[in-house]
Amino acid sequence: MPSSLLGKGAISIRNVTKIYDPEGVNVMAVDDCSLEIAAGEVCMIVGPSGCGKTTLLNAIAGFHSVTTGEIYLDGEMLCGPEKPLAEQGADRIVVFQHGALFPWKTLVENVAYGPIVQGILSKKEAHEKAEGMLTEAGIGDMSQKYPGEVSSGMARRAEIVRALINDPKVLLLDEPYRAMDALTKSIMHEALLEVYDRTKVTIFFITHDLEEAIFLGDRVVVMTTRPAKTKKILDVNIPRPRDYQVLSSEEFRLLVNEAKDAVHEEAVKAFEAGERELA
Amino acid sequence: MLETKAPTGFALTFYRWKKNLKTPTPYLMTFGIALWIGTYYLFCEGWELPRFNKIPGPYVVITEWLSRKPAWGISLFTEDYHGHIVASCRRIVIAFGIATGIGVPLGLFMGWSKKFKDYSFPILETLRPIPILAWVPLAILMFSGLETPVIFLATLASLFVTTLNTLLGVESIDDSYFRAAKCLGAKSSDIFFHVVVPGSLPFIFTGLQISVGVAWFSLVAAEMVSGEYGLGYMIVDAYMNITYVSMVIGMLTLGFAGWFTSALVRWAGNRMMQWRVRALALEGR
Q1: Contact B72, B243 (CB under 8 A)
Q2: How confident is the model over B140-173, as pLDDT tens digits?
Q3: B69, part of any domain
């Protein structure tokens, strides 16, 4: 039984502020942002481009430090005043915007990589497990191919498998389906929901796409324009497992409209500020 | 559904060859070569244009090259010719080998460790622009004999190219691969061998193709200045002895040798980067 089923992966973001100073001028990316994410929750973060969503993700993943505030994972401090930069670890795995499967490894080698470098499984065991998980995800036939040989949808699915094989507490997804066409996207959504229903891993998912956010999420957190803080939190009480019928339901449409109003306001502000996106 | 087994081995080579014949490429290549040789022939031997009339034309050169009893002493069948080729190739193998052996790890470390790059980059950038001919006196002062200075010069030129390209290769790797590797629990050494090395291979091999060319270039320059064997020496020697036919044979030989070594490097690169070859093949390249 995966550990995530035991209710692991609660993230607590407390008063986090992040200030960059790329040119000697302080730029506040995140301002006093607090957010509680329950274990096994699908938390969708939406907000205008460059608002600081990714900054938050980077702080959780340990790519960037926080300036003030703390982030906890299951009650343990990841980063805080004494340790502004969280340690990177396989308990929080990121799926990147443009995909980061190693192009020089086949899909099965990519998936097996985590357990091998962590010394958990031997190469043979890891490859067997990886093959099994790829088959489970419906891309077993592709296991010997390189990422450059498969479609972006397949690659992204393999990347999620590469994360899941490590049995992470949290999956951090940074607009993973941004560049995909609507049809591929819908297939990816169902695949992700299927994975979620099976593993109940906590998901922190950044997106621009409101329908995606509401279709996938338990909660949708709308962020303000930079500096980012939470503007509005929408609870999505559509029962799981969800399928594409949901998209045409009245409840879904109402939620989308509600979110749209909140996001639009911020998007206008961001556009008028006209600042270049920060990471 | 139409499904055929993908050809492999010889069948695949044959298939590619057959497919290639249906593209304009081989015909254009043949035409290009014919045009070049034709012009060369007309200028030197046909019309005997001024400035070209001292230069041996293709007919004379090819007959001499293929002759068992060459009038000027150099042809495919003379031991001297073989000796020159072997001498130059041997130097290239040594120089290119040393340059790759030092340059690739050096470039990888420079790209991987900011600190190491801070130490070494200014030195590299100062030494690199010094033309290889300017190193000749120093090479002769530093090394005894005729062989070592020549190899040193070829190595040096090649080394700079390889190091710089490898460094650029590491810097070209998208940051998300490093982040992904760390997320998955990779240690520094894992990242070096599983991200830095494979990720920079495309740039390394581009660099190696240039560097093998540069090695030939500086080798010949060095052989012209000091040497008693080798293709560069052969060309200068032929010029001094007014045996211009041998001189042109030497030049063409260098062309073929350079082409062959580049192809060898390309082949090795493709062997080591199947992931790239396969992805490019899907794009029709």
Answers
A1: yes
A2: 888 888 889 999 999 999 999 999 999 999 999 9
A3: no
